[in-house]
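Regression check, flavin-adenine dinucleotide case 344:
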Amino acid sequence: MRVRIIGGGLAGALLAWRLSDLVPDWRVEVVLTGRTGRVDATAASGGAVRAYEDDPGQRRLALDSLVELLGSPTLRRWADFRPSAATYLRRDRAGLDDAVAEIEHRLPGSARIADAAELAGLGWAGLAPGDVAVVERQAGQIAPGRLREAALADSRARCLESTLDVVATGNADLTVVAAGAWTPGLLRASGLPADSYRTKSLQYSVHPVEGTRPGQFVDGVTGVYGRPDGAYGLLLGVPTDAWDIDPDAPPTTPALADRARRLAGERFPGLRIGPARLRIGSVDCYHDEPGLALRPVGPPGHGVFTFTGGAGGSAKTALAASLRAATRLVESGRTAQPTPVERR
Ligand SMILES: Cc1cc2nc3c(=O)[nH]c(=O)nc-3n(C[C@H](O)[C@H](O)[C@H](O)COP(=O)(O)OP(=O)(O)OC[C@H]3O[C@@H](n4cnc5c(N)ncnc54)[C@H](O)[C@@H]3O)c2cc1C
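Current build output:
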């Protein structure tokens, strides 16, 4: 069986690595774009990892990924894992007890719920009395670009350079488009349906800061999120609503950096946060059903799939999502008699 993966971001690289392990006799090829200087989502990623997500499906993937990462010295080294606590603020407690129990079951002693009074003692301000947060002890930060390189190097996949901007299946039995934010454009250029996929701008800024920095945090009330960066910096971001962005021209919007700085300053009045010294913009792929997953595309039985939909958060879910995707791909390779779509 011959599998061609188009795109060597975190998704494509981990999928190739999983397949090399699950089906060593399959021939796996990863098509890397020949364009130099392209900053993909994996290279730009903030790399924050934790188990808690509002969405139960994404939470399961994030938890499975974190458990695998923490349990593997090799993966921790590849990903340059740096541990730190994570705090996720929510306006109400609905569903949080179950979520914390799920995390505790797999990572005992890691997760608990902190109320507004405790958070105030930790430097948080402007809280409503009912505000609560999931605090995780075992969370942290990875370098997704380094994990991608290590996974590709360890896999037995053949890497091919290409500048083609269509889904060229060649002699492959199965083709997986793992081209992140380039996926919708590639599908359309290949005459394949792409309406369920969209691109969206993600941006963050890095600020000099004085005062005791919080660990990784998501403020689910105002939207600002952040984490320590290096010895003295604070990475801050707020969600954008810039949809359908060309991934080759990601915007950086100074007003967003200012907004993130203002919101973080109000939430942590003990910090002195300076103006942004670095602004990063990149684009990720979103799917109608959120999350990084293997999805068939085009006519049934043609053996073409996508593996994308990271939605700004798949550094934390990619390990488990890639295992799930590789397992599904192996099943479909064993049961189907795929007819590759014609080369265009
Ligand atoms: C700014 C930013 C910050 C983020 N921070 C976090 C975070 O803190 N925590 C978290 O969990 N997640 C985070 N994410 C999300 C996570 O990093 C992404 O979901 C993930 O990296 C997406 O990986 P990918 O492989 O799907 O896409 P990409 O990394 O974009 O990779 C797609 C690859 O396909 C290639 N390609 C495109 N066209 C072709 C072609 N025709 N042929 C061959 N190759 C092609 C591209 O060059 C690229 O290398 C962040 C994302 C962004 C953008």
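Comparison notes: The chain is about 30% helix and 30% strand. The CA atoms of residues 177 and 306 lie 5 Å apart. No diff flagged against the previous build.
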